[in-house]
Amino acid sequence: MDDELALLHQKIDILTSHVEMQNQRLEGLEVNGNGSQAVITKLDYLSQQFEVLCQHQDEMDELKRDLIPIANHMMKLSIDELAEIGTEFQSEDLLFLVKRLLRDTHMLVGLLDRLESTVDLFDETKRITDQVFNQAVISLDSMEREGYFAFARQGWRIVERIVTEFSEDDVQALGDNVIAILTTVRGLTQPEIMSLTNNALEAFQDQDISDEDVSMWALMKDLSDPKVRNGMARLINMVKVLADQPSGSEN
């Protein structure tokens, strides 16, 4: 900035000398009575240029006055920051750091490439996650409208009732006998057992038997039916099986 100001002063001095020379020539022409309009025009032009240069110099001086406090403040901050470092930092450390960076340039480029790949992977994962989240919201809304959550709430109430109604000993006994229970359930769910149960229920529900139809002769007559005898035989076998089971008082 000082070099520019010196150059500007030099140009101003040159212009000033030219103006003085022109003024002297003008005075000489006026004395001799041979004034020229062209010389006056040139002097006016030079005067305008001189004013412009003076204005530019004023602007540069103002800019210099504005920049000097800022530069001083920056220098003060730099000195304060460097003072905090103290003697821990040496110029050799900075030189070593620059050498290390230059030596590991390829590694730094590789790290930047990996960082870019990681950012791209994160963007793709975020896009997929958003799609999965939106699909999950749609699926949950469909399940809510179809009643899955209401069924789950009622099922949880059943579980709560089981927990409150049964003690730890009951659960342990259930665990000990779960094989027998499942075996019994499997036997009850066989096609022939289910068919027999359905037929028995239909017989109880559909037939309307009055007291007049139930007589000894009517029962004796029904015993001649092979189906009745077959059913009586099955019933007697079931009674025998029940009779073979030990009673609770014998345990």
Structure description:
This protein is mostly helical. It has a domain at 2-88. Helices cover 86% and strands 0% of the residues. The chain has helices spanning 2-32, 37-85, 91-103, 105-146, 148-165, 168-176, 178-188, 191-206, 216-223, 226-244. Helix 1 (2-32) runs antiparallel to helix 2 (37-85). It is rod-shaped, with a radius of gyration of 57 Å. The termini are far apart. The model has no long low-confidence stretch (mean pLDDT 76).
What integer is the average pLDDT? 76
- Taken from the alpha-carbon principal axes, the silhouette is rod-shaped
Content-based structural category: mainly alpha
Element pattern in H and E:
HHHHHHHHHH
Number of strands: 0
Computed Rg: 57 Å
Helical percentage: over 70%
Number of helices: 10
* Biggest pleated sheet: none
Distance between the termini: 115 Å
Task: Give unreliable regions as ranges.
Answer: none
Strand content: under 5%
SSE diagram, text form:
Blueprint: H1 2-32, H2 37-85, H3 91-103, H4 105-146, H5 148-165, H6 168-176, H7 178-188, H8 191-206, H9 216-223, H10 226-244
Helix pairs in contact: 1-2
List keywords for this structure.
251 residues; mainly alpha
Quick synopsis:
This protein has 251 residues and is mainly alpha-helical. The chain has helices spanning 2-32, 37-85, 91-103, 105-146, 148-165, 168-176, 178-188, 191-206, 216-223, 226-244. The chain starts with a helix and ends in a 7-residue tail after the last helix.
